[in-house]
């Protein structure tokens, strides 16, 4: 039942992340109470179709008994033990094996964490450690991209290129640089081919590496499809061009697969989808479908070979958390991946994602406020514009995407808005049926139409 006391208690005791403090105090929380399949119900009794899979993460959908039972059994047997001093546990060993079977060829070792942010901090330390071991202590700079989101901890928050995560925190760290992002809608000149645009962007990356000095650049980090930055897929050939530059200057490639991994693009990983050869991969979200917090940093043979060489000196990678390789979280992730495999949800994501994009184009492709419908698999972005011809954006203070999202609540669908401009992001569970896709499209159309009509009036 609708529980006002709980809403007041929320305002009294919780600080919500990256949320307008004023809006929250004025409007209070929307409290989710239960979920099943692709639907989430709040305490007011609204049952939403979750077009966002929580926060891009509930890949297998809600209410999966197998995951609950696997966690339950593991909790009863061994709820916790740490992984320091060579301690280990069965679910994390089996999960490490499973993750490496899923990962592209050449990936070699897994370090578990609790979330995407800490995994990216781990990755920064891995780059620094690796280059120290190789006798290249100056090779520490990490190049991220404009508008990137890689988390919020001191390290990951530095890789993130958004003012709200830097201002008043004295971030980014001095070792972090940014290069131009992919943006085929707004940045690629209309008369330029995708391969040429890829060359242009890779050329800028090379210029940046040269101006910084290649002997000071350790790694480049990118999401296969940029998520929070705007649901921005790379132009054709982008990662091939980028990898050629990285290879030339001995710079590591970090693929942040936190959103793209575990089937979201209709391939196991974005790296597989785009032919990326990562040295390090960041995994979280879909790894456990959010049932329990879990992340992984995965390194390839080349990094492992250098670490392994230090074994005779009794070296250790001075890093790790109490909850690294948590057995209950690992049990959840294992059960989650088994569902992905058994139900071929990766294949379903490719099929349903294609349907979702097509049906959105058919139903709202001509809307006066829809400028672009883009994405791969179950990762779709809708960019709203004031003028379709000129691509002129709405004044951001109008919160046009926010209005569509709010209409979505009325139409019982959940979609997300992104921070940089008026983009609606859709990232539903990979288990969506055709009927679910049609319901999501109908809800999005009704919401977009309502806002377009209100603007016309
Ligand atoms: N990397 C990417 C690409 C993400 O989208 C996110 C979160 O949305 C993160 C890292 C940070 O993950 P977490 O919120 O689990 O710390």
From TrEMBL:
Sequence similarity: Belongs to the class-III pyridoxal-phosphate-dependent aminotransferase family.
GO molecular function annotations of the record: transaminase activity
Protein species of origin: Rhodobium gokarnense
InterPro entries: Aminotrans_3 (IPR005814), Aminotrans_3_PPA_site (IPR049704), PyrdxlP-dep_Trfase (IPR015424), PyrdxlP-dep_Trfase_major (IPR015421), PyrdxlP-dep_Trfase_small (IPR015422)
Taxonomic classification: Bacteria, Pseudomonadati, Pseudomonadota, Alphaproteobacteria, Hyphomicrobiales
Protein's UniProt name: L-2,4-diaminobutyrate transaminase
EC number: 2.6.1.-
Keywords: Aminotransferase, Pyridoxal phosphate, Transferase
Pfam families, A to Z: Aminotran_3
Cofactor(s) this protein cannot do without: pyridoxal 5'-phosphate
